[in-house]
Amino acid sequence: MQISRSLLSNPRLKAATVLAIGALALTACTNASQNAAPGSASPSGSANASFDPSTVQKDDALAAMVPAAIKSKGTLNVGSDTSYAPAEFLGPDGQTPVGYDVDIAKAIGATLGLKVQVQTAEFTGILPALGPKYDLGISSFTINPERLGAVNMVSYFNAGTAWAVQKGNPKKFSLDDVCGKSIGVQTGTVQEDPDLAGRNKKCAADGKQPINIVTLKNQTDITTRLVNGSIDAMAADSPIIGYAVTQTNGQVEKLGDVYDAAPQGIAVAKSDTAWADVIQKTVTKLMENGSYKKILQGWGNADGAITKSEINPAAGS
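Above: the chain sequence. Below: its structure as tokens.
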């Protein structure tokens, strides 16, 4: 989760600032959709057993630190692009958000004595709407310098970029020879830019054929094309690749190792530093009582667990 989700956001009232933030968000980490279209060969997005937030006890001391505006409404509004299984996606009914990010949001709410409403949103629109519309943005946002300049980020997960090919790699695709190949990525992810964009520049510099970058809005559509053999490989956040392998019943397989691993963060409006502190303390509490690890294990992503949550940790470029 590298991750394909990019930077930033914070509710700025000036339109120019909002537009700038939106552009930054486009470089985000991945927001892959796993909700397959009818007839699709891609993952079905079926949910695992959901975490029960009633198992999380309210922490009165932390609840007392919740900002008055949020406490008065009693509900935590969370913006999330629910097209990125297994982190956040829509369940079998096509309406209910599920995933480990959704469960973490519910656990945060339970700890603070708040109801949680996870609202489906376009990935690039979440960060600009922090404050006025969303209390938190939990959508696999990779922490990077650009985002840190626009919002507060509370680290809670670690992910990187991974690749996949058809089972058995029938096209003999190699990461050492990507020029001239068709590679699928989700639009607006870090896999699209800077990863493949940078590889394409090298292809040009070496006098080789450019990469045919197939960029689509939904990760599910990319996975479907890989299963059908219309692209040679796909790149996405590591949790997404692992989930695709499972949900396609092994029709695709991981290629190579995860690289560019980076922390993901829960986004909080830049001006709300006290609120960010509450969220960091709450995530730490969930780590200490075991709820955090239980959630990630339930979704098969315990490998992405971190041992310490921080506010605005140093991040790579």
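The first helix runs from residue 15 to 25.
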